Amino acid sequence: MTHIEYKRKVRTIGICGGIGSGKTTLCELLRNLKNVEIINADSIGHHVLKEPKTITKLCELFGEQNITTTNEVKVNESEELGITKVIDRVKLGNIVFSDKKKMEQLNQVMWPRIGDEMVSIWKEKTKPSQTKEEESTLFLFFEAAVLLEAQWHLQLNIWDELWVVCADKVKACARILKRNSHLSAEQASARIDAQMDNEKRIATAQDKKISSKVHIEVIWNNFDTIKEFQDVFNDIIEKMQKRAA
Ligand SMILES: CC(C)(COP(=O)(O)OP(=O)(O)OC[C@H]1O[C@@H](n2cnc3c(N)ncnc32)[C@H](O)[C@@H]1O)[C@@H](O)C(=O)NCCC(=O)NCCS
Ligand SMILES: Nc1ncnc2c1ncn2[C@@H]1O[C@H](COP(=O)(O)OP(=O)(O)OP(=O)(O)O)[C@@H](O)[C@H]1O
Asked: Does the keyword Transferase apply (predicted)?
């Protein structure tokens, strides 16, 4: 018996950009469109932080008492409770966002695992199926703040486009302070400085190694209202659809 396989056209787009630049806002606008799926690399990272291997490795690096908290969880069918240790992201964040070396140690553990998960998801979404699917192109977005820092633009062979979202530091800092009220101005500023600056990010994305194969879109979001950003967004989507046609 012959099996017919149907392959839907998928266009894979990475969204990167600094903290507070507007990646999530952009994704919220994308969610209103048809044929769009968005995968968030921060969420993949949060799952990776729950893997026993990761917990063991990070406790060795940073000290169990410094980065974990204990949780009461159901351990069996009869609702018995047990204690388990989980990574406390606030504690870990406070350590790594103020210490470049420690951030590098964390990245060495996390980035390969997150990258592997992104490729697995991409393989799943792009594999042929036995049922006839929609003929329209699926736009598969990966929102990954540190996409360029992690070298995923070069290491993961999945991209059709890379979108770089940018906002000036003062703007980004004000947005972070408004959104994360537990952070001080110094902490917000340290988080921005822990990442690539806009200039380097744009230059990295526009480097021939990647821009010769992948469409690069630089998106400035220094606006004070979502309405102003929406106008820019509409234009970007129109061009994205033309490229996919
Ligand atoms: C440091 C951790 C524990 C903080 O967790 P928390 O829930 O507070 O933040 P969350 O994961 O939601 O990230 C929020 C933002 O912080 C910035 N950020 C996160 N990790 C990093 C990093 N390694 N380098 C620079 N900036 C980072 C990004 O802008 C991200 O969008 C967590 O971010 C982490 O494990 N980071 C390492 C893995 C990683 O790089 N994740 C980001 C994938 S895009
Ligand atoms: N054009 C805009 N007008 C008004 N507010 C905005 C605009 N863009 C973003 N914001 C606000 O700024 C804050 C940060 O934006 P957003 O969460 O989209 O950034 P981000 O790049 O996803 O940041 P992070 O990496 O920290 O998750 C949010 O509260 C958002 O509502």
From this structure: yes
CATH code of the region 10-50+97-244: 3.40.50.300
Q: Cβ(42) to ligand 1 under 6 A? A: yes
The answer to whether the CB of 92 is under 6 A from ligand 1 is: yes
Average pLDDT, the chain: 93
Residue 1 in this model has a pLDDT that exceeds 70: no
Asked if 103 and 191 count as a contact pair (C-beta separation under 8 A), the reply is no
Please report which ligand is nearest the Cα atom of 195. 1
Q: Where would I find the H helices in the chain? A: 23-30, 41-48, 52-62, 64-67, 89-96, 100-126, 152-155, 169-179, 185-193, 198-206, 208-211, 226-244
For the chain, which residues make up each domain, given as ranges? 10-50+97-244
* CB 54, CB 110: distance < 8 Å: yes
Interface ipTM? 0.96
Contact between 129 and 3 (Cβ < 8 Å): no
Confidence check: pLDDT of 220 > 80: yes
Asked if residue 107 lies in contact with residue 150, where contact means CB atoms within 8 angstroms, the answer is yes
The model's pLDDT over 175-184, given as tens digits with 9 standing for 90+, comes to 999 998 888 9
Q: What is the dihedral of CA 120, 122, 128, 134, to 10 degrees?
A: 140
Nearest in space to 39 (alpha carbons), one of 109, 103, 107, 123: 123
Q: What is the largest CA-CA distance in the chain?
A: 66
Give the residue, out of 15, 16, 19, 24, with the most ligand 2 atoms within 8 A of its beta carbon, to mutate for a pocket test: 24
* Whether the Cβ atoms of residue 25 and residue 226 lie closer than 8 Å to each other: yes
